[in-house]
Automatic annotation (TrEMBL):
Residues 835-848 have a biased composition (Acidic residues). Belongs to the DNA mismatch repair MutS family. Residues 693-709 form the DNA mismatch repair proteins mutS family domain. This is DNA mismatch repair protein MutS. One of its GO terms (biological process) is mismatch repair. ATP binds at G619, P620, N621, M622, S623, G624, K625, S626. InterPro entries: DNA_mismatch_repair_MutS (IPR005748), DNA_mismatch_repair_MutS-lik_N (IPR007695), DNA_mismatch_repair_MutS/MSH (IPR017261), DNA_mismatch_repair_MutS_C (IPR000432), DNA_mismatch_repair_MutS_clamp (IPR007861), DNA_mismatch_repair_MutS_core (IPR007696), DNA_mismatch_repair_MutS_N (IPR016151), DNA_mismatch_repair_MutS_sf (IPR036187). It comes from Halomarina ordinaria. Residues 817-878 are annotated as: Disordered. Pfam families: MutS_I, MutS_II, MutS_III, MutS_IV, MutS_V.
Amino acid sequence: MESVTGPPAKMAARREELTPMLSQYFSLTEEYDDALVLFQVGDFYELFCEAAEAAARVCEITLTQREDSTGTYPMAGVPIDNVAPYVETLLGAGYRVAIADQVEDPAEASGLVDRAVTRVVTPGTVVEDELLAAGGNTYLAALAPAPDGEEVGVAFVDVSTGEFRVTSARPTVVQDELNRFAPAEVIAAPDLDHAFDVEGMRTPVPDERFEPSTARERVSAYVATPESVLSGTAELRAAGALLGYAEYTQGVDAGGLAYITRLTRYDPREGMRLDATALRSLEVFENREGGDAHTLLGVVDETSCALGRRELTHWLRRPLLDRERIEARHDAVEELTRLSLVREEARDLLRDVYDVERLVTRVSRGRANARDLRSLKATLDVVPELKAALADVECDALRERRDALDDLADVRGLVGRAIHPEPPIEVTEGGVIREGFDDDLDDLRATERDGREWVADLEASERERTGIDSLKVGYNEVHGYYIEVTNPNLDAVPDDYTRRQTLKNSERFYTPELKRREDEILGAAERADAREYRLFTEVREEVAAAAERVQRVAGVLAELDVLAALAHVAVERDYHRPEFGSEGVHIEAGRHPVVETTQEAFVPNDADLRERPFAVVTGPNMSGKSTYMRQVALVVVLAQVGSFVPARRARLPVTDAVFTRVGASDDIAGGHSTFMREMAELTDILHNATEDSLVLLDEVGRGTSTADGRAIAWAVTEFLDDEVGATTLFATHYHELTRLAGDRPGVQNLHFAVERDGETVTFLHSVAQGAAEASYGVEVARLAGVPGTVIERSRALLEDGLPDEGRETVTLEAFAGGETVQNGHGAANGTSVDGGDDPVDDSGGTDDPDGRIGSSASDSPAVDGVPTTGEGEAASEAAAALEEIRGLSIAAMTPLEALTYLHDLQGRLDGDD
Ligand SMILES: Nc1ncnc2c1ncn2[C@@H]1O[C@H](COP(=O)(O)OP(=O)(O)OP(=O)(O)O)[C@@H](O)[C@H]1O
């Protein structure tokens, strides 16, 4: 980023000559040198010099010139009333924004108005409602290494809700946690060696924030004995630095974030390992295009309020491992599926629940207005009703939650008595406090009211007294109350009228009594407004003192909302309660929770992985392989989240991790080649999967040559079966893998069959035992219209193997852009490897170290036996073709595209097209 934060160079050069206001601006930019300072001048926030230019560019606002003794410089401003969208744009462009407010009433300032930074807005510390997604979380994270360097402490806070979590673990686990929480901003200790992969902004902070003594002091401001909550200095440093930085951004002193009451240390092993790759490929939160339509969250999110939605996201992000806890959730869901009236009543009541987690943080920060307090009360009013609705529930999980609901009668009562039911947004202009709450206030308002009534009656009485029928009594801001008499009636004006204002057709007057009343009314109103504000802040502080209790209630409401939502989904979508056992995965009539909602007739499928936990899944493209594999994983995930599952019956082991290596995920943006990425993901699985894990492999080895890919796939299967014992579903086009089932008792073949009727092929989408036929690719090619001769030739080659095996051939090394190890097996000749052959065998390859083709084009298998049009021409055509092939991205092509391309190429080499 260009250096537009910090003090402007131009001002630095002429520091002494700056006007007092710009000098103040300059000091603030020096102090907050990692942010753009928005400097309040009246109703605008202004920026100057380079900062103004940057803001003008990013926010598309007008740049103006300002002139003083130091010369001219650019200035840009945004209205205070509508600052949120600009802040959002600046954050989006990678800036932090320091809000420098006037902290003194300009009317009372003797000279320059005092200004101070009241808030630094950064991506991870946003609290403004306009900038936050409802029902989501925005996390800030801090990382600090343990003294032994083995573990890393990591802390997360959501400044808008007060959620605070700390843990420490090995770097790979910490990386998983970072993926799970996806913090919008991260700070790291200076001695952190390990590089973590995060998308959020990395913010440098002063080293001392991470010093153990500073950090300890900071944490102590929130929990009496940090050691009772945290384990080890890494956690302490991370937590302390995080709190320090969060306080800095909110402009408060140590301990000032009073609503952070739940500093929780957690163990990452409490949750199923579900890394970013798995979350992505299972489309839990985002679909493959990055949108939120057609995701697991989208299907099961039947929550009624933002609290519930946020909680559900947590649950999905961290499925449980503890069977008791999981089953307690299932008990609750089950009971709620039965008690449909209770469920629907609860869901209805929960719709009136506001986002109290955020409300209460606003209350604690002294930012809540009277409407917020009313919303809080409206939410708390739900509690007794909800308790009543749940009066007869029986399972422990629901009873415990119901009983944990504190209806906070004191807080509700206070807000109910004190705050007007429909208060204005402003809290300084009266109308906020209810009558009857405070005698002094009532007296003041009575005086005001009496005065106004007297004025209201004045018109009639003065008309009568003066006999002027057109006489009017009015009020304006500048002159106050007046009696208006039109020019023709001026003769009738009594002596006690004093002239106040002359208009074109009339004169305005006041009387001594009117003046006295006016002073009384205005004085009473002003004092009443001030008193109301004081009373309001007192009420707000009293509510803030109950923040921890409110947050606990919010937590229980959130859980009840999720349980009711899951029960609703179970009923609506015909999900059933899964059981747990140790025999292995067994799902009867399972469905893909998302695909079934988009498909007119979804075909349910069984998955029996008890005896043979490793399944090689074959079948043509589009037959349903990956849908099937994902549905098994999603059933497992949903079960451990505490949900019922889309299956007639499911008996499952508790799974410690779901790993996926699905599709040749294009990670061009990430700078890795597809194949490298694929192998990196595979490495992670092979190292970390256990016999309690579920592994999905889809098309492993696709990014390299067929021979390499097949060899890797074979070896991976052996390793997972022999060494790991994980439950595995492996979809592959390498048909020879199906032979493994013959030798290995733990491996089974499953396939997706299609029904053929003459020219038409119907995908049945149903899984069956055994391997698919090998020639589906050729079949699909035929359906797509590849010429008959090519099809016949392909069939012949499939059966007999490619001609001239052992001769130098075009190796697929060229296809992979030179990144693979050359292997002698050509693209297709592997299909002829018979039963006894070891597919990893590297014999019979070319020796050409460059991996280029050998002698002439006529050596290539594709032109075998085809007359050439002339040696020289053919050679140059072949060279051009090879060059083209080298540039191809095979991994990005479908088999059909590859086949069509080969066909065209053949035509060109034949010279007859
Ligand atoms: N059980 C099912 N019932 C109905 N339709 C299904 C079913 N499974 C899959 N489909 C439909 O078939 C389409 C293709 O499924 P899927 O992507 O799982 O096939 P695939 O065999 O993995 O294909 P490829 O090998 O090309 O990746 C899906 O988008 C879905 O619309």
